[in-house]
Amino acid sequence: MDNLAHIMTTSDLSIGYKNGKSLNTLMEGLNLKIQKGKLIALLGANGVGKSTLIRTLANLQKALNGKVFLKGKEIKEYEAKEFARQVSLVLTDPVQSGNLNVTKLVEMGRFPFTNWTGRLMPNDHEKVEKAIQLCAIAYIKDANITEISDGQLQKAMIARALAQDGDLMLLDEPTVHLDANNRYTVLELLRNLVNETQKSILISTHQVEIALKMADEIWLANCGENIKCGTPNELIQNGDIERAFPYLKKLEL
Ligand SMILES: Nc1ncnc2c1ncn2[C@@H]1O[C@H](COP(=O)(O)OP(=O)(O)OP(=O)(O)O)[C@@H](O)[C@H]1O
Prior knowledge:
Elements: E1 6-19, E2 22-30, E3 33-35, E4 39-44, H1 50-57, E5 65-70, E6 73-74, H2 80-86, E7 87-90, H3 102-107, H4 122-134, H5 150-164, E8 168-172, H6 180-197, E9 200-204, H7 208-214, E10 217-221, E11 228-230, H8 232-237, H9 240-244, H10 247-251
Parallel strand pairs: 4-9, 4-10, 7-8, 8-9
Antiparallel strand pairs: 1-2, 1-3, 1-5, 5-6, 10-11
Helix pairs in contact: 4-5
The structure holds adenosine-5'-triphosphate.
């Protein structure tokens, strides 16, 4: 395995759900590679298993089979805090803690780096401020998270992941509640982040057109098939994108 070029790899990975004796395998035999300094967009229809894959890579859900490696070490060997220092996550799950303002939520991204007191140091506050600026949410930084819109909360969750500053960011549909301009802005922000910091980002999204413009690589998940990986151009040229998203042709995009 080439640890220098790849931040995360999978080996013969199968994902899905086990309930007693019944097994629902969504994808199998996955040998995926996340290169350093790349923005990867995971595309595919509803229910194909995108969230399940992200949750499995994030060590939140057990693989049915196979292995996931972060920087050459199997993810199940990591302590939770050590893993969180390197992998920032944005999931679609609602935030559990109710009585928080936006700044406090973003500060939670720094918790893997604090000592037992949980106190933030000047360097942590700097990262929190920078994340708030980058996500353009300074105007709501004192607002309670129960009193902001879904889209504003989503940007705050992205800011929390930015503050966490992991080398790898995994984001599950981070633009789902955002209006059209903000969807573009968030993906542009992630694109710039990759360009400027050489972080790696895997994002699942239904924003096919924007993903094709912004991503270095596309992972195309189709029901009953292996994930197809390639540059946007490769997958457009060989017809995979048109087969998966026939509406694009109808819109003549
Ligand atoms: N906790 C669970 N237990 C059992 N099956 C589940 C569970 N969560 C999801 N599934 C099933 O796994 C399949 C894939 O779900 P997943 O959420 O990963 O799809 P997705 O590609 O992210 O879909 P979407 O684009 O709609 O978000 C679905 O058929 C779903 O019913």
